[in-house]
Write a structure and sequence with these properties.
About 45% of the residues lie in helices and about 10% in strands. The protein is an alpha/beta fold. It folds into three domains: about 180 residues, no CATH class; about 170 residues, Aldolase class I (TIM Barrel, Alpha-Beta Barrel), CATH 3.20.20.70; about 60 residues, no CATH class. The longest helix is centred in the first third of the chain and has 21 residues. Bound molecules: iron/sulfur cluster.
Length: about 425
Amino acid sequence: MRIDLLSVKPFEICSIRPPTENYSLTFRLTRNCYWNKCWFCPVYKFGARYSKRGIEEVKEDIRRAKLIDNILSEQGIGNNTYSYAGYSRVSELVERIKSANRDADNRDECDKEEISEDLDPGLVWFLPWFKDKATLEDSFNHILSWRMEGGKTCFMGDADSLILKPDFITEAIDQIKINFPSIQRFTVYGRTRSAARLRTLEDLKAYRKAGLNRVHFGIESGSDAVLKLVNKGVTRDEHIEGGIKTREAGLSCSVYVMPGLGGVKWWQEHAYDTADVLTRISPDYIRLRSLQVFPQTPLDEAMHNGEFAEASEEQVVREIRIIVEEIDADTEIMSDSATNLLNINGRLPDDRVAMLREIDQYLALSKRDKLLFSLESRVSSFAGQYGGLTRDISNALGPFIKKGGLDFSGISDTDIDDVIRLIRSKLMP
Ligand code: SF4
């Protein structure tokens, strides 16, 4: 096929999405988060503003994505099989397109997103996840990874697609299905408040009828005190109402909870109330995301001015223990995030005993062994999730790298704390 290089344009993708949507095709129905006030939340900041997109704009993105998909298909790149070679062929293609745009003096397709100089250096690491501008590289690589994973899933962002009327979602899904008929699962992020207050049960059923399969809710806590403390903008009753309504509409309900969010002061209330809300919603999936305090967030400020005291790793594990023990529902717990110290996964109620046993094994360790466990586990889960260690983490581990691997026998407790802190400072929520 002869490609009209100047007709190939980037489309906007959702860089923030659930881990199960890492290889999904994504479309932005809205941009960023209209609430954007949760104290712990680092995403959609740095000047990114909320906006609703018109359906024609979304359709144009679908058209652009389809053109890229057609090009890859005709070139035989990424046809359902994983291969590194696909990425280098995509790089060559993108280079050809950019070069044609440079020749045509079309700066828009050649420019990269600017990095603000005011950013905390600790935040620069997170920038690839916080991109706001569509680029050709990202668009091609996005379609490529979706194709290589079989092309079956689609995520429609950004932070709360439930604010969109059913007609809008229906039209978007219809267009996506027409252009990408292999897609079998459609998912969105939503706020429970929107499901509870903004949408009727009929609206939610209309989403389901349109083809939406699952809503991912960040509920974080079931405690009103904690929700208020972190300015979540939603109550536990709204969590419950929104979650139940979503399930009643036939949509799969996946919720994120944040052990540690109550800090030292509210930890017990946070754990017990969260277990209670989860019991009432009985979601299909509960995903654990242990709190990481990000630089330049209001929670970071609250920590520095003494308003919030961070929970220890052991205390966070105790909170998870309460949640696992107290939930009385048929649901699945998942630890699909490097933010968690322990990998607690299983179905409730069947796997409760096994999950508690794993937690108790950690809690029974001596103080020193807990630290060593944490260090080893943080190193390996970071490398697993991010495909290796960063230079600064490797440097910090340098003195302990021996022939047979890592040897922490001579490491001091302070050094362990420092390395753990460094690794945790790089974990995405
Ligand atoms: S609603 Fe979600 S995306 Fe928006 S500020 Fe809160 S945590 Fe962040």
